[in-house]
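ERR on first pass: missing label on line 2. Operator R.T. fixed the label and resubmitted. Corrected input:
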Amino acid sequence: MSGHSTYVPKTGFERWLDSRLPIIRLANDTIITFPTPKNLNYWWTFGGILSMMLGLQIVTGIILAMHYVPHVDYAFNSVERIMRDVNYGWLIRYMHANGASMFFVAVYIHIFRNLYYGSYKAPREVLWILGCVIYLLMMATAFMGYVLPWGQMSFHGAVVITNLLGAFPIVGDAITTLLWGGFAVDEPTLKRFFSLHYLLPFMIAGVVVLHVWALHVVGQNNPTGIEPKSKADTLPFTPFATVKDGFAMSLFLILFATFVFFMPDALGHADNYIPANPLVTPSHIVPEWYFLPFYAILRAVPDKLMGVIAMFGAIICIFALPWLDTSKVKSMRYRPQAKLYFFIFLVVCVILGFCGAKLPDDQVIPGLTTFKLVDSDLNSFVWLSRISTLYYFAYFLVVMPLLGLFEKPLPTPETISSPVLGGEHKD
Amino acid sequence: MVGANPDPHVTDGDPNRRDFIHIAAGVAAVGIVGTLAWPFIDQMNPAGDTLALASIEFDLSKVAEGQQVVVKWRGKPLFIRFRTPKEIEEAIKGDHADLRDPATDESRHKPGKAQYLILVGTCTHLGCVPTFGGGDYGGWFCPCHGSVYDTSGRIRKGPAPLNLLVPEYSFLSDTKVKVG
Amino acid sequence: MLRKVTLLAAALLLVGGPALANTKVREPEPVAFSFEGPFGRYDQTQLQRGFKVYREVCSACHSMNLVAFRNLGDPGGPFFNPEYSAAKGLTSNDNPVVKALAADTQIADLDSETGDAVQRPGIPADRFPAPFPNVIAAKASNGGLAPPDLSLMAKAREGGPEYIASLLQGYGPPAHGVTLSPGQHYNAYFVGGVIGMAPPLAADKVSFDDGTKSTVRQQAEDVAAFLMWTADPHMEARKQMGFSVLIFLVLFSGLLYASYRRVWRNESH
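pass 2 clean. output:
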């Protein structure tokens, strides 16, 4: 996929095929000879892990679709039939449900690795934006997939999320009616969500191809953020990266298997084992864990429309990052101040996740009542999410643009190889 | 960029051990994929609730003499026929005819229960359902491609290669059978 | 239990009324169930006792629509008998205990000749018959609140089987400030404290065939274990397979690590 190819057809058939469909050349240049920086650490193995998880989700999903019935009267029971009667159905369904969570675990690590090492910076802006598109598609897919079992959380989660779009003035109602195909989340909604849940993963796979293509044009970033200057800085993808990725995948599968076999429902909600009942809402609607930070941002803002705008704004910030970050230095290894703000950002995202799982008025420190600020006690999760939300936006809109102009980075090495020769640089 | 770097494998002093580890890892990887494939394939086999209905019990007193009752069994029709003495006689006569799929009438019903014939009602040609009492032999006639079965369900004419299948069944009591 | 902390929201189905959601609810008491932990298995005699409690007490009001009689004889189930397993070429359909239990019930069906609604004896493939023909009838007979289906109860409530065991033993005089209307009962483990279900268990209400003393606590824990099985019938198979998979993956990771070290050993990185 990269500009120049070193592939030399060996046999007559390969020469014949190469001049007609250079597919062996493509495979060779993509996964065999592709030069990878020799100093990549384990944080760089998550791309491979994500490809594996996407493949696994698609395969298990196609299988589940063979048994699932997208109808409000049968959806819940058809999922339970998979769990009880279909051969290994419980395994496949638990793999798919926990696989979605593991997919997000991997994608969040992948994204934060990018943030830390400045992988989104020129010339990798398109690569970064394609990644953001994949993330958006993943969120849409995961949300619609969660609706399909038609349990209480499925149903009322769908109600809440689709109602978000109703916040927009003028067009809001038209959008929700269009999404629902009726006056509420009902049979038409379930059917279209099933159809789209089947479609979107293939769109993700398509964007992944573009993502990998873009990667192979610009090459991989590396922990130093210094572009490879000579052939001494790189190694061929196979066997060096393949075997390391394979090892990391195997470790990741251990984590995955632990969830699937020993705590398959730990990441789900008990309420989703109750069939959907449009007349009764669970007292505490919580999205899946991977949406919690955005859910906290939504609830941090008292106004409905502003809340929705803040939530979408939080995602738009991620897209705009390559142009918000003004630093000339990529890797935060050489940006001690940025490193500090980055780790605060990481902690803030985790805090937002916690806030998203709590009721807004729950106390952060139990039993401590301070004073009422505007609408809630200061010692409440709603205020914690407000402070965290402020930092979230400040990181993108203030810290990233200004820090690059004012900070004084550490000296960066000439080449990838030089810091290695001068002693291992520890983060 | 193969060849750009000095290949580290070239300087390897112990190629056998190196190969063993890589081969073992490769074999294990293939093993994972192979083992994972089995649940993914086996899920297409009949599920627990499908198998549970795979055997049915039937009360023969519901069939009148000279008639047949068709029930659904494993998604296919099951012919349960109460044969008249004349039909049984014709069937026994047929034992000596030139049969495509030789079988005695005796072998196609339970001992002492010659009046009850239980057959899977799909033509052995391409799976159509033969009609009751049709054809030259008073058994069944398949409208799709003209196969003719006698009163013992044996193929006598037409393209079908085999007799109508006798399912596995047993008498639970004088009038009750369990099929499957 | 590792589940996220949410309120026992679904329990509201019984009382209806989000106003009660803020009332403090007592945490379920811990019970040392045999199926807990990565090596845990169901105790078959406990499941048999639990089934008896369900059959003689719970099933009078609660349906269990997802469970069939044949499931009772499946591996891991209360009446599993290796004599009637796939290894012998048989299925749980052939298990005489299962057949007898099924035949003991009346299943609503249509007469295949006349189309009339009839009752016939059950077969192992039948699901447990529901006590009420539909949810409206269930509501009408229970003071306007339909008793929930029990098939998945142990997965559908925070606290699972421990919550069920505590709830069944949790009846008592109302806490201060709680007033009960007719047909309501006080239960400290139920969200809001006010429950429509009358205390279902009493000492010696169910006599156990294995001679176990029939206390309320025993009945509550046994039926909670049985409900865990109905909610998660493949748990034993899952844990067993999990161990093989983990052992294999650990060995595989070791091999890959060795392979990785050999590939990279001449590279400084």
